[in-house]
């Protein structure tokens, strides 16, 4: 593999925590007193991963592909959006090699859901769970995540441009 065909992408997303919404991250419906607000299901982790993939192919961001003004995406399942992004990446001639991510959430405790999130993300992208990392951190009560006003997620993706 020619290292000049490797690409990296980075993604970041934030959603507000509110009452009366589900908390869905990495395609897992996580029991909690509040959930994330958004036009779609507000899966902050899936959105960060999607943006990392799009960054790797210099393909814009998910807001460009799925505008939050389009009623078609109201309440959308972000696993389906992520699968569409993975297809978009492959159609452009790239293979997804590896993805890693961090969720910043003061609560709830996310480690029990880590492997299910990895499996869901991997399935949506058509890669092995071995190639998907999910980590969680509190922010020690600092900032908007620490005050439990919202949750953020960051992700990086390693892609390779297929040459044959
Ligand atoms: N929402 C969260 C946040 C953290 N974890 C796990 O706890 C560990 C310690 O968190 P610190 O913020 O104190 O570093 C962290 O490494 C995660 O394993 C979690 O499960 N859910
Ligand atoms: C996922 C989309 C879909 O309309 O909407 P939101 O759930 O609002 O999420 P955000 O990360 O704010 O924007 C990206 C949009 O593509």
TrEMBL record:
Q: Which GO terms describe its molecular function?
A: 2-C-methyl-D-erythritol 2,4-cyclodiphosphate synthase activity; metal ion binding
- What is one GO biological process annotated to this record? terpenoid biosynthetic process
Q: In which pathway does it act?
A: Isoprenoid biosynthesis; isopentenyl diphosphate biosynthesis via DXP pathway; isopentenyl diphosphate from 1-deoxy-D-xylulose 5-phosphate: step 4/6
Looking up InterPro entries in the UniProt record yields: MECDP_synthase, MECDP_synthase_CS, MECDP_synthase_sf
| Residues the entry annotates as binding 4-CDP-2-C-methyl-D-erythritol 2-phosphate | 13-15, 39-40, 61-63, 66-70, 137-140, 144, 147
Which cofactor(s) does the record list?
a divalent metal cation
The record's comment on protein family reads: Belongs to the IspF family.
Q: Give the protein's biological function.
A: Involved in the biosynthesis of isopentenyl diphosphate (IPP) and dimethylallyl diphosphate (DMAPP), two major building blocks of isoprenoid compounds. Catalyzes the conversion of 4-diphosphocytidyl-2-C-methyl-D-erythritol 2-phosphate (CDP-ME2P) to 2-C-methyl-D-erythritol 2,4-cyclodiphosphate (ME-CPP) with a corresponding release of cytidine 5-monophosphate (CMP).
The protein's name is 2-C-methyl-D-erythritol 2,4-cyclodiphosphate synthase
Annotated source species:
Ellagibacter isourolithinifaciens
Q: What is the lineage of its organism?
A: Bacteria, Bacillati, Actinomycetota, Coriobacteriia, Eggerthellales
């Amino acid at each position: 593999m020619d290292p000049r065909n490797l690409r990296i992408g980075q993604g970041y997303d934030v959603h507000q925590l509110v009452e009366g919404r589900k908390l869905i991250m990495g395609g897992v419906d996580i029991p909690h007193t509040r959930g994330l607000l958004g036009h779609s299901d507000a899966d902050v982790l899936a959105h960060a991963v999607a943006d990392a993939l799009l960054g790797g192919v210099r393909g814009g961001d998910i807001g460009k592909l799925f505008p939050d003004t389009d009623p078609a995406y109201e309440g959308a399942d972000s696993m389906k959006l992520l699968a569409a992004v993975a297809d978009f990446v492959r159609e452009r001639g790239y293979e997804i090699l590896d993805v890693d991510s961090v969720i910043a959430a003061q609560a709830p405790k996310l480690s029990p859901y880590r492997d299910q999130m990895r499996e869901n993300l991997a399935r949506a992208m058509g890669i092995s769970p071995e190639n998907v990392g999910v980590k969680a951190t509190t922010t020690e009560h600092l900032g908007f995540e620490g005050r439990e006003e919202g949750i953020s997620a960051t992700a990086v993706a390693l892609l390779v441009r297929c040459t044959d």
